[in-house]
Amino acid sequence: MGHQVAVPFPDGALVGMVTDLLNNGGAIYEMGPTNSAMEEVLMARIGRMMGFPEGCGGVMCHGGTLANLVALLAARRWTAGPNADPWRVGDDGQGAVLVSEQAHYCVDRAVRIMGWGQDGVGLVDTDDRHGITAEGLDAAMAAMTAKGRRVVSVVGSACTTSTGAYDDLNLLADFAERHGVWFHVDGAHGAPAVFSKRHAHLVAGMGRAHSVAMDFHKIMGVPALCTGLFYGRHDHSFLPFTQEAEYLWSDAEEPEWWNFGKRTFECTKRMLSTRVSAVIEEHGTEIWGHLVDRLFALGAELARQIVERPQFVLAMQPQANIVCFRLIPASMADAGADAINRFTERLRQRHLEAGPQYVVMTRYGGNVWLRCTLMNPLTEAADLTAMLDRLETLAEEVTPL
Q1: What fold characterizes domain 288-395?
Q2: What long-range pairs does 120-125 form, CB within 8 A, spacing at least 24?
């Protein structure tokens, strides 16, 4: 119920043990030919399932933070054009990215890594459901332009880490097309909604993106770390890097899909495709839709139970399996925001120490919230009830400051 950590399928974990013994790196084909071919086929196949056109592709890497960085490196080069190659000669340090104020911190980190500093992040205002607004996009673009910044990408969240909120991806795709910028989707947590008939509407427009990051090691049940960076066009996967490495390949410019070192930040990497393949072979791709439906239903059930309890406050109706809430005792009904925030922090710490459940905490809108991410499909409604009961019991032990 705490962090975004999958309960992995045994198949993927056991195959990982076998491939760890083989220890075939994935920088070039001769180091791991089976894995190279498998990854190429898988990324195209899954990409088409996500709504990308024929000719899509991508690479696997270790984590969504790395995938988002590589996608923005592709965006920087794509917007610069052939006559101003930032990979070879650097740039003027005035690039910028537009992203939700609720987005994961790794987008901000990627912008700083690329040398654009704090001012290279254009935070876009969101609505009361924490989704990017059209007005916010226009205002953020105007603000960046006024500062002399060159916006290279707009990033959509599918979904945000704090609250599980989905941006309107069609809105962002239209904006990107209108301004000629790269459209990237950070779908590390919530992109698998595309595999569910019931929840695919949450990611409508994702197939219009230039790139999408999606973690296999969250909702999709693959052991960590395993992330897919998908591109709408296969040739875009060569944008981030072009580098001489005579001991690996003879021609840095030749688009050799089988030599993954040309398309990834990593040189050696684990045989990631085997874990995903094991899950597909054992359960079929439809298992991902079932997981999404089950985990998102648990989020809805927790929200239902919260609103039925007078002392609890639900931050917002969840769109996914991330639920934010807090407990305000009757004795604190008239307390100020600071006092309630301090009480929430102390309650969470007490619960962490006393157990037996485990929830985390987040801050936004000036308030502190308890936060659950329902990741185990074997969780039942009774488990959620027990967690809320326990918080009520512990709240009686926490003295407001």
Answers
A1: Aspartate Aminotransferase, domain 1 (3.90.1150)
A2: 120/94, 120/95, 120/96, 120/149, 121/96, 121/97, 122/96, 122/97, 122/98, 122/149, 122/151, 123/99, 124/98, 124/99, 124/100, 125/101
